[in-house]
Amino acid sequence: MSRITVDDRAEEDRGRHRLRCLRSPGLAVFDLDGTLVRGDTLLPFLASFAWACWRPDRLAAMSPPLALYATRAISAYSAKQRLLEVVLRGESAAAIAGHADRFSSTWVSPRLRPGMLARLREHQGEGDRVILPSASPDIYVHAIARLLGIAEVVCTRVEFRDGRCLGRISGSNCKGLTKVERLQSHLGRMEAPEVSYA
After folding, report:
1. What's the distance, CA 63 to chain centroid?
2. 25-197 carries CATH number 1.20.1300.10
3. Domain ranges of the chain
4. Averaging pLDDT over each range in 19-33, 55-69, 126-140, 178-192, which range is the top one?
5. At 53, is the pLDDT very low, low, confident or very high (cuts 50, 70, 90)?
């Protein structure tokens, strides 16, 4: 059996570095809920916001749209719209942003999936372009992206006016086919680059 020396390992490391330098950066797309994070993030964010701001009436108001969605009486879009309205309508952008930062560091961080986080770090280390598409709203997805070191985000947008949340979705819900179309629009192409990951 041949003996592997420190110099051999150093040479292997230099070889890997040369390959990384020669390799063209790829595209890595990581979804949020159920991929990078275990489970859903919207309901925990809204419930924790209502609790932190001591809005028990708004916390209770989440039940009707959830019940309607559970019985398929309303669509996912309508349920999300109503939840955003009953919890966040009239709240300041600063208050929501502050809670988003706290939510990301205290609730999301311990629920990140280690395996997916390792893959994300691998792509970032390789210099790949990383995009985070999500059906979840921008009011906290950007904060999670900052936590993860992801610069590009494609997600559902929420309307604000004069520094206050209107509690309604701006445009379409970034879910399913709409998410794919929004990602294609963001990339400026219909097909994925030659080197891509999802």
Report:
1. 24
2. no
3. 25-197
4. 126-140
5. confident
Using a pLDDT cut of 70, give the percent of the chain over it: 83
Please give the structure tokens belonging to residue 182. Answer: 């929004």
Q: What tens digit of pLDDT does each residue of 130-186 get?
A: 999 999 999 999 999 999 999 999 999 999 999 999 999 999 999 999 999 999 999
Rounded Cα distance between 169 and 147, Å, is 24
In Å, what is the CA distance from 46 to each residue of 32, 50, 137, 141, 190?
16, 6, 11, 13, 34
DSSP structure class, residue 3: P
If residue 152 lies in a helix (H) or strand (E), which one and from where to where? strand 152-161
DSSP class of 112: B
H/E stretch holding 167 reads strand 164-170
Helix (H) or strand (E) holding 140: helix 138-148
CB 152 within 8 A of CB 161: no
The residue behind tokens 């947008």 is 157
Quote the pTM value: 0.83
Phi, psi dihedral angles at 96 (to 5 degrees): -65, -45
Say if residues 145 and 153 touch (Cβ distance below 8 Å): yes
**Owner of token pair 């706290």:** 102
